[in-house]
Design a protein that fits this description.
Elements: E1 2-7, H1 13-22, E2 27-30, E3 40-46, E4 61-64, E5 82-84, H2 89-107, H3 110-118, E6 132-136, H4 140-151, E7 155-160, E8 170-173, H5 178-183, E9 187-190, H6 204-209, E10 215-218, H7 227-235, E11 241-244, E12 264-266, H8 276-292
Helix pairs in contact: 1-8, 2-4
Length: 306
């Protein structure tokens, strides 16, 4: 029984060391040195080549090395394979603090004052008046973020794929209510999973529905955003500003327009970072559960994609 690590685009030395310490007696290989592919039953994956999956005749479990599963080509997997994700209990609190911090930064005009400082300008203004925060995506992360915002005096609205009832949150759902939802948002936070249905959801029609003082904060995935539509919306003052923590291609190219846009605040995908210790513990637990024929943790619905 073999675990294959196929996590591309990063240095995996600490990950491999931690996995081997947590799973003594288990053969652990790292792509592309996979050895006999017929021995592999469990794959830890992120941005694995799509061609890999059909080469694994005895594959049982694919574990995402992340809170989402958009780094895995789900459509290429055999139907009987289980797909799991990492759930870090601390991640939701980190995300909530990041969102609250950036909402307050926009509300208090901190970016403006920083730019004025560089120019030695003294131009005080009242804080922005908007107090309604809309959250796209009301899963575990979205609900923790909503609670943090409510405790700090913000009115919270939520939009989800299907109808939900969450006390204290004004609810919208489905595509037909998306524009109405956006029209009420002084701050719009994207926390959606990335699926075929949500790809490009932050686009021209959504920005046109938002109020002109609206601020976009994307902490989900870069592919949710139509980048040209955002730049146009900012340049034409359809919306006021944006904070982006995620991008279609990371790290962002040095010649990208986002770097120098005066209405865009960027951070390098740091809103919520999964602890390596937590991730390895969950990977090891699922590997051991598979060996014993027990239920795995944090499995997704392949039909929904999350």
């Amino acid at each position: 029984m073999t675990l294959l690590v196929c996590v591309t685009g990063r240095d995996n030395r600490k990950l491999m060391t931690a996995l081997r310490a947590s799973l003594p007696g288990i053969a652990i290989r790292e792509w592309p040195d996979a050895g006999d592919l017929a021995e592999i039953e469990f794959v830890l994956a992120w941005n694995a080549p799509e061609s890999l999956w059909q080469q694994l005749p005895n594959l049982k479990v694919v574990q995402s090395f992340g809170a989402g599963v958009d780094g895995i080509a789900l459509s290429a997997l055999p139907a009987d394979v289980q797909v799991c994700r990492i759930v870090d209990p601390a991640l939701a609190d980190d995300m909530a603090e990041y969102v609250l911090g950036h909402v307050l930064a926009h509300k208090l005009r901190l970016g403006l004052y920083y730019r004025q400082q560089q120019q030695q300008l003294w131009r005080p203004k009242r804080a922005s008046g908007g107090n309604r925060v809309g959250i796209l995506g009301l899963g575990q992360l979205g609900q923790v973020v909503a609670t943090k915002l409510q405790r700090n005096g913000f009115e919270v609205l939520g939009w989800s794929r299907s109808e939900k009832t969450i006390p204290g949150i004004v609810q919208f759902w489905g595509r037909t209510q998306l524009s109405e939802f956006a029209s009420h948002c002084d701050y719009l936070i994207c926390l959606l999973p990335l699926t075929a249905q949500t790809r490009g959801i932050l686009n021209k029609s959504l920005f046109e529905a938002m109020p002109s003082n609206g601020v976009l904060i994307n902490v989900a995935r870069g592919a949710h955003l139509h980048e040209a539509d955002l730049i146009d919306a900012l340049d034409t003052e359809q919306i006021a500003a944006a904070t982006l923590d995620v991008f279609a291609s990371e790290p962002l190219a040095t010649d990208h327009a986002f770097w120098h846009h005066p209405k865009i605040t960027m951070t390098p995908h740091v809103a919520a970072l999964t602890s390596l210790k937590t991730a390895v513990a969950q990977i090891a637990a699922n590997m051991q559960a598979m060996q014993r024929g027990q239920p795995l943790s944090h499995c997704i619905d392949l039909d929904l994609g999350y």
